[in-house]
Predict the structure.
Amino acid sequence: MTPEIVLTHRFVCAIPEVLEERTVYVSIEFATAVHKCCCGCGREVVTPLSPMDWSLVFDGETVSLDPSVGNWNLPCRSHYWIRRNRVYWARGWSREQIEAGRTADARAKAEYYGPRATKTEPLGPQPPPTASEPAQPDGFWDRWKRWLFGA
Ligand SMILES: [Zn+2]
């Protein structure tokens, strides 16, 4: 059985160059949390904080990350939840589950950003340009009129 891991957290302005093990660094300014993979492999795990990425909950004493941290891009492929500074291990995801998760993620992102993208579309046909249009050079008829009527 995996021993329980207790993390500490640190609110920082910028993420430090060297990370300590079992520490979650939280940068509000950069809306990012970074920690070293909880399996002990030493890899850095970056979890951006946004409505479509991770949410961080700080209850005054501990931090929680939602959703779970799935490090399938790392050799260890560890997967765990960080809840109230404690690490809860999940069983390894199969390739199918990872792909399904990615597809769902992409779909969720499309739904999230979709309405925003359509808002920038023009609402209808653009009015014809008028005042800003450069004056047309005099045509033949204008010159003829001028000659006839002295206009
Ligand atoms: Zn790891």
About this structure: The pocket of zinc ion is lined by residues 37, 39, 41, 43, 71, 74, 76, 78 (CB under 6 Å). Residues 116-122 have pLDDT under 50 and may be disordered. The radius of gyration is 29 Å. Strands lie at 5-6, 8-12, 23-27, 32-36, 44-48, 55-58, 63-70, 79-83, 86-89.
